[in-house]
Amino acid sequence: MRRLWIGLGGLAGLGTVALSAFAAHGLGRLDPAEMRMMQSAIQMQGWHALALLATGLWAPNGGWLTQAAGAAFAAGLLLFCGAIYALALAHLSVGPLAPIGGTMLMIGWGLLAASALRRA
Questions:
Q1: Per the confidence metrics, is the pTM higher than 0.70?
Q2: Per-residue pLDDT tens for 95-110?
Q3: Are 67 and 1 in contact (CB under 8 A)?
Q4: Terminal CA-CA length for the chain
Q5: What is the C-alpha to C-alpha distance for residues 62 and 8, in angstroms, rounded to an integer?
Q6: How far apart are CA 116 and CA 120, in angstroms?
Q7: Cα–Cα separations (whole angstroms), residue 1 to 7, 55, 69
């Protein structure tokens, strides 16, 4: 699973850079509120790309809690950032997916912390 979390982190990081460039150069049609949404989602994606990389690096030491953290980060990224991108770019509201995704991201951090404290 170590390679999975590092691979997903790398892909999320790649997407962060690509979306940042797209937002800076190709999204002139967005109003300021939509641009703030994009910037917020891009920032969250970047931070959680790093979280996935850290999860992959810690995976050999952290046991099942680390694997659960990686799954929570991956699901949270898709749900939270995906919902924000859909709203900002397509005016498509996908219901409670953003708060569910945000909750998954928080759970991921808690699980990662628990994996470190358990092994201390």
A1: yes
A2: 999 999 999 999 999 9
A3: yes
A4: 21
A5: 18
A6: 6
A7: 10, 10, 12
User: Quick one: pLDDT band at residue 87, thresholds 50, 70, 90?
Assistant: very high
Please give the Cα distance from 19 to 62 (Å, whole number): 32
**Do residues 72 and 52 touch, judged by C-beta distance below 8 A?**
no
Give residue 9's identity as a one-letter amino acid code. Answer: G
Q: Which amino acid is at 95?
A: G
Task: Kindly indicate the confidence band of residue 31, based on its pLDDT and cuts at 50, 70 and 90.
Answer: confident
Q: Give the integer Cα–Cα distance in Å for 12 and 57.
A: 16
Tokens of 27: 């999204």
